[in-house]
Design a protein that fits this description.
The protein is about 35% helix and about 30% strand. The protein contains five helices and seven strands; from the N terminus they run βααβββαβαββα. It starts with 5 loop residues before the first strand and ends with a helix. The structure holds coenzyme A.
């Protein structure tokens, strides 16, 4: 079933409790409150939450470094997956970064995280290398979209958004 009541908005400090609860539920090495608050206070970051009926069901963030937009986090509550929540979050994060002048997109993902890798492939990310021991217990796959600045990539994002309707 498609998501109909979902809304996205910037994350604030008031969301920390709900976001950290999801972090701990979802990730083996979750962000601490200190990391999250530092990220929210840092320059060149955008963090969004996805809300359904007033409940935070997902969140994600991007950090801009020169022309690179680095996806720092993306997560959806286990019971709300497969309905386009992450896709919507990613679309807003990527379009916002490109509107702000980013030309490339990058992220790290666990080698074993096939759900996320499939999502990122749909968004045009290609694997470019391995970051050894990036996570406590696993290597990271480094993925990039190197040509995100042109109309072709904007068209890809628009097609994905259209496919959600
Ligand atoms: C990876 C993750 C964020 C994906 O979240 P999600 O909300 O389930 O993602 P989406 O629903 O947008 O996309 C998942 C699939 O559902 C499909 N889908 C999207 N909207 C849909 C809809 N309305 N109806 C049916 N299917 C839909 C998508 O096409 C997508 O297919 P794909 O697997 O071929 O890419 C989620 O699994 C998660 O939180 N995992 C744990 C944390 C994590 O790994 N984060 C990434 C760290 S790098």
């Amino acid at each position: 079933m498609a998501v109909t009541t979902l809304s996205l908005r910037p994350m604030t400090g008031d969301d920390a409790g709900a976001v950290l609860a999801l972090e701990r539920e979802i990730f083996p090495t979750p962000w601490t409150e200190g990391i999250l608050r530092d990220e929210l206070a840092a320059p060149r970051r955008t963090y969004l939450v996805a809300e359904e009926d007033g409940e935070i069901v997902g969140y994600g963030g991007v950090m801009i470094v020169a022309a690179d937009a680095h996806i720092t986090n993306l997560a959806v509550a286990p019971s709300r997956r497969g309905r386009g929540v992450a896709t919507r979050l990613f679309l807003d994060l990527a379009e916002g970064a490109l509107d702000g002048g980013a030309e490339h997109l990058t992220l790290e993902v666990r080698l074993s995280n096939l759900d996320a890798r499939r999502l990122y492939s749909r968004f045009g990310f290609a694997p470019v290398g391995i970051r050894k021991d990036y996570y406590v217990d696993e290597d990271a796959l480094i993925m990039w979209v190197t040509d995100a600045a042109g109309p072709e990539y904007r068209g890809r994002l628009a097609a994905i958004r259209e496919g959600l309707r």
